[in-house]
C-alpha cells in the first residue's frame, strides 16, 4: 500500500522550473531513494512534501489524506520527519537539547504549567528526556549528550539530526543526503542505522549521491533530471537503464 503519493507536482522559482510534473509513490514499510544530478529538483520535492514550499500545482497525499500546502508543524504531527541537506542544528545548544527540540511538538503541557512547573510539567519533562536519550542511544550518541552540538564531527551532526527527527515519533522519515561528508566507515554504519530505522516500521525516502549506499538499501529508486522523473524501478533496473546511465551514473556503474 502506498503511504506517500506525489501527483504531478510542479514548482517554479521565477523563470526556473525546478520540479516539472513529478509523480511517484512510496509504499508503506519501504525504503525509496531519490537520485539525480545536482540541481535536478530533489530537495525541492522534499520541501514540498514537508510543507516548506507550496507547489504551483499537483498533490501530496499521505496516508490517503491530501496534505498539499499544509503548515510544516501540522505535517510533523501527521508523522513526517526530516533531516536537512545543510545541517540545521542549534550549534550552541547541547546534543540532548537538540533532540528535545524534536520532542516538543508532542508535549502537552500548557503555558500555565510551563511557567509554574507543576508536577505534570516535571513528569512530562522527565519523560521527554528519557525519550530523547533513547533516540540518542539508538544513533550511538548517548555518551555525547552533554556536549555542544557544534563540537560534533560532521558525520555525528548528521546522526544527531536523525535522532532529533526520530524524537517526533515519525511513521515516515525523509533524509536529504544523510551520508554527505561522511567517511567510508561512517557511511557503512549509517547504512545499518537506516536498516534499523526501517526495522522499527518507519518508511524512508532518501536523497543520496552515494550509489553504493542506495543500491544496497533501497527497494525502489526514482531518478530525477531537470525536475522530471526519467526512470523509476528496482536498483537492478535503474543500473542498466540507458537514460540513467547517460544522465547520471556514468560508465563505471
Ligand atoms: N528557494 C529557491 N529559490 C530559487 N531557486 C531555487 C530555490 N530552491 C531551489 N532552487 C533552484 O531549483 C533547482 C533545483 O534545486 P534543488 O535544490 O531542488 O536541487 P537538488 O536536486 O536537491 O540538487 P543538489 O543535489 O545539488 O542538492 C536549482 O536550479 C536551484 O537553484
Ligand atoms: Mg539537494
Description:
The protein is an alpha/beta fold. The protein folds into 2 domains: 1-79 and 170-253, P-loop containing nucleotide triphosphate hydrolases (Rossmann fold); 91-163, no CATH class. Helices cover 39% and strands 25% of the residues. It contains 10 helices and 10 strands. The strands form 2 sheets. A 6-stranded mixed sheet has the order 6-7-8-3-9-10, with helices on both faces. A 4-stranded antiparallel sheet has the order 2-1-4-5, covered by helices on one side. The radius of gyration is 19 Å and the shape is globular. It starts with a strand and ends with a helix. Adenosine-5'-triphosphate binds next to strand 2 and helix 1.
Chain-wise SSE layout:
Blueprint: E1 2-13, E2 16-27, E3 31-35, H1 42-49, E4 57-62, E5 65-66, H2 72-77, E6 80-82, H3 95-103, H4 111-116, H5 119-139, H6 154-166, E7 172-176, H7 184-199, E8 203-207, H8 211-217, E9 220-225, E10 228-233, H9 235-239, H10 242-249
Parallel strand pairs: 3-8, 3-9, 6-7, 7-8
Antiparallel strand pairs: 1-2, 1-4, 4-5, 9-10
Helix pairs in contact: 3-5, 3-6, 5-6
The chain binds adenosine-5'-triphosphate (ATP) and magnesium ion.
Characterize this entry briefly.
By secondary structure, this protein is of the alpha/beta class. It is built from ten helices and ten strands.
Features:
single chain; Rossmann fold; 10 helices; 10 strands; globular; binds adenosine-5'-triphosphate; binds magnesium ion
